[in-house]
Amino acid sequence: MLCFKIIIVGDTNVGKSCLLLQFTDLRFKNTHDTTIGIGFGSREIRVMDQNVNLHIWDTAGQESFRSLTRSFYRGAIGGILVFDVTSRQSFQGLVQWYEKIQSYACDEIELIIVGNKTDLEEQRQVSQKEGMQFAKQYNFEYFETSAKTGLNVNQVFENLSCKILQKVNSGEIDPCKNYGIQLSKKAKLAKQECKIQNTKQDKQKNNTCC
């Protein structure tokens, strides 16, 4: 089984931790403590007829903690850039977060733009059209979600995983070389056994008389 490291980034209070909790635990907390440093969750999903384990890191949005999270960009093979549809400031902050990902993450990272808190439609400051235009500018997929109701939350992670897996299957990403993709213990053992079998077969061929 493949393990993908996914990071969730965005300004504070856009709902990053709530998205993570909704995806991993299928629940929502009305009162949620601000993430200090790094939050973590994991969940196994099935995409393209393959089981994938997602290791998801929720990076703190506060400026004072951004320097502490730089090392966590490294090794991420998937990223979710989140803004709050009721906050234009968080939408404008996406550019800065994208620049940080470019600086610290690997070149192969797949990204998705997410406009969260659609359950607060009456307070919306950023239209769906604006979000889609921004995503299109960078050639990213765009989703609008509600961590409260669960709207499109699974779809975000499934779509991102599918894009990464497509690259793995096409050979664009080598899971054995890329730091952001790890093999499970079972898969590692199977790979080691395969190498041993191949080595034995090679020796047998070399010892065979012509």
From TrEMBL:
GO terms for biological process: vesicle-mediated transport. PROSITE patterns: RAB, RAS, RHO. It comes from the Eukaryota. CDD domains: Rab. The keyword Transit peptide does not apply. One of its GO terms (molecular function) is GTP binding. It holds the Pfam family Ras. Keywords: GTP-binding, Lipoprotein, Nucleotide-binding. One of its GO terms (cellular component) is Golgi apparatus. Belongs to the small GTPase superfamily. Rab family. This is Chromosome undetermined scaffold_132, whole genome shotgun sequence. It comes from Paramecium tetraurelia.
